[in-house]
Design brief:
Elements (H helix, E strand, L loop, with lengths): L2 E6 L2 E6 L4 E6 L5 H18 L3 E5 L8 H18 L3 E5 L5 H13 L5 E5 L2 H9 L5
Parallel strand pairs: 3-4, 4-5, 5-6
Antiparallel strand pairs: 1-2, 2-3
Helix pairs in contact: 1-2
């Protein structure tokens, strides 16, 4: 279902040509190096495909280290905005520390040049991203 850009035990990144956005699926815990490297790698298909939507499926995330949250907010989000993303959908776990971490990130980032929303399902996230899909 699209071009695969990265497939590691902790994350996969692909271009979803059907829905026209970059889709990152977090599969489990990533070290700081792995987390940051994956986010930087996600910028490649965003730039290449001129994607205005980004979907991150974080349902399997157990924890995001605070320093990585700060880095993502201060370094990566501005790069995401510069790359052209307008909407960032996060599919979050229904409970647990991972859910709380992701909700913290949403509150830090929203309206800093990108609209970010959290969702309980992929279908809700896709529907919201479709509102920004280019004609």
């Amino acid at each position: 279902m699209g071009d695969l850009y990265l497939d590691e035990p902790w994350v996969s990144i692909r271009w979803d040509g059907l829905h026209h956005y970059v889709h990152t699926e977090w599969k489990g815990f990533a070290t700081s190096r792995e987390f940051r490297s994956a986010l930087m790698r996600a910028l490649d298909p965003i730039r290449e495909k001129r994607s205005v939507g980004y979907l991150s499926d974080t349902r399997k995330v157990k924890v995001i280290v605070h320093s990585d949250q700060t880095w993502a907010n201060e370094v990566w989000i501005p790069l995401l905005v510069k790359a052209g993303v307008k909407r960032f959908a996060l599919v979050k776990a229904t409970s647990g520390l991972g859910k709380l971490n992701v909700e913290d990130v949403i509150h830090l980032v929203d309206n800093r040049g990108v609209l970010m929303r959290g969702f309980d399902s992929l279908s809700e996230a896709r529907q919201w991203l479709a509102e920004s899909k280019p004609d």
